[in-house]
């Protein structure tokens, strides 16, 4: 019996699933590995290649898909039109995504389920330590660290906190700040968590670990994650699920109304025709964007990386940067990558799968890098999960 369970544990599917899932977790570049960042990418890349070798030599299931072709077309177009600042067809995130798309949807789905557990467990530990800190029970020593993007953070066990937070008046008076987990910003952890909940169809009963992702969404104070949760609630509407999500929200509001108003309500105010919380672009880029509107250049794009030229007042993380650089044509090609993934692997075009694709595509609004491996994992994992559940229901009805 021991030998059978042991052989099952170390089966090809399990070894490949864990290797790929752990590789993607490392590609998130968690803050507790920032001091060893020079080793993270080679290890993560090695695990990815190990999974691909298994797919090619043992499973013999490696193939070129239509969505991989669309991805390559987008890369060629975005790197050649206009005046590109740099031609990096083989930048780390890009080559990783291309290699990842060689894997079969079934392999990706297995890894997605493992990733949800690995990420969720570490996220749960991070949440506990964070809650102990913001409630004053635990007072850790903050360690100054530089993130892979060059920004400085004040970190503690399994948690990151942007350096500017320590001088924030609200943080100094209350000790509260938006939950980053071990990533570089609250919006990042909120987006990933809400998409994972949606990908698993808000099924908290079968996937208890989703409660961790739900709490992470709430304390990240990410407007985008709140919107995803709201859309999901409207689709999977039931009194039980509304209560499950409403209770922690009400507790959070009752805990500190000032906190809720500062981080949520105030960001919904309309100022000069724009929502105050919509801070995905810089003033310098906004001027460049306005000058582009109405010109024919908007169709083909200005050139790769042009959105950052002359920007000295902050970064840009918006769908506008995609259109500015690669034009409307490039933006359409970019969207076709994910639409082709949907049609290639999804044979059950029910309302949920369509809604999930739309929610995923809307992520481009504030995260114009949804081709990164962890986003692709969630998209394909969610679509495959829908197929698996639909097939189970079909078999049950037939029997």
- Please tally the helical runs, counting DSSP H or I stretches of 4 or more residues: 17
Main β-sheet, in a few words?
Answer: 2 strands, antiparallel
Oligomer: single chain
Mean pLDDT: 86
Inertia-based shape = globular
Low-confidence stretches: none
Strand-and-helix sequence, N→C? HHHHHHEEHHHHHHEEHHHHH
The secondary structure category is: mainly alpha
Beta percentage is: under 5%
Extended strand count: 4
Strands of the widest sheet, in order across it, are 1-2
The helix content, as a percent range, equals 55-70%
Rg result: 22 Å
User: Ends: how far apart?
Assistant: 31 Å
Your description of this structure?
With 399 residues, the protein is mainly alpha-helical. The protein has a domain at 284-399. It has helices spanning 2-9, 12-26, 37-58, 66-80, 92-100, 105-134, 169-174, 186-199, 210-220, 223-235, 239-255, 257-263, 283-292, 297-300, 319-345, 351-362, 373-398, and strands at 143-146, 152-155, 270-271, 274-275. It has a two-stranded antiparallel ribbon. It has a two-stranded antiparallel ribbon with strand order 3-4. Helix 2 (12-26) packs antiparallel against helix 3 (37-58), helix 11 packs across helix 12 and helix 15 packs parallel to helix 17 (373-398). The longest helix has 30 residues, at 105-134.
């Amino acid at each position: 019996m021991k030998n059978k369970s042991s052989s099952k544990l170390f089966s090809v599917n399990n070894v490949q699933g864990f290797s790929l899932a752990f590789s993607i977790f490392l590609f998130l570049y968690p803050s507790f590995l920032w001091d060893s960042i020079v080793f993270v990418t080679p290890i993560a890349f090695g695990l990815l290649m190990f999974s691909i070798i298994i797919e090619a030599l043992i499973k013999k299931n490696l193939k070129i898909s239509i969505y991989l072709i669309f991805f390559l077309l987008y890369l060629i177009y975005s790197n050649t039109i206009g005046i590109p600042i740099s031609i990096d067809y083989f930048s780390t995130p890009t080559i990783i995504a291309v290699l990842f798309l060689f894997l079969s949807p079934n392999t990706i789905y297995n890894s997605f389920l493992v990733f949800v557990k690995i990420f969720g467990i570490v996220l749960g530990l991070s949440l506990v330590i964070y809650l102990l800190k913001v409630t004053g029970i635990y007072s850790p020593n903050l360690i100054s660290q530089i993130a892979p993007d060059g920004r400085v953070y004040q970190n503690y066990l399994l948690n990151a906190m942007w350096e500017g937070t320590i001088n924030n008046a609200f943080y100094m008076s209350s000790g509260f700040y938006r939950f980053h987990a071990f990533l570089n910003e609250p919006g990042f952890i909120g987006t990933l968590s809400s998409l994972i909940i949606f990908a698993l169809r808000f099924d908290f009963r079968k996937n208890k670990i989703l409660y961790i992702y739900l709490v992470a969404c709430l304390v990240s104070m990410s407007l985008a994650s709140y919107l995803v949760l709201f859309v999901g609630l409207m689709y999977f509407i039931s009194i039980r699920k509304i209560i499950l999500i409403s209770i922690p929200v009400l507790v959070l509001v009752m805990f500190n109304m000032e906190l809720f108003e500062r981080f949520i309500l105030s960001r919904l105010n309309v100022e000069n025709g724009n929502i105050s919380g919509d801070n995905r672009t810089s003033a310098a880029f906004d001027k460049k964007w306005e000058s582009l509107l109405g010109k024919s250049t908007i169709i083909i794009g200005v050139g790769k990386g042009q959105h950052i030229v002359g920007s000295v007042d902050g970064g840009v993380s918006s769908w506008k940067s995609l259109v500015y650089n690669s034009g409307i044509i490039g933006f359409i090609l970019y969207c076709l990558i994910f639409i082709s993934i949907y049609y290639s692997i999804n044979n059950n075009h029910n309302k949920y799968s369509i809604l999930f694709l739309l929610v995923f595509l809307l992520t481009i609004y504030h995260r114009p890098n949804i081709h990164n491996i962890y986003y692709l994992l969630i998209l394909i994992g969610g679509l495959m999960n829908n197929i698996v559940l639909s097939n189970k229901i079909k078999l049950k009805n037939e029997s």
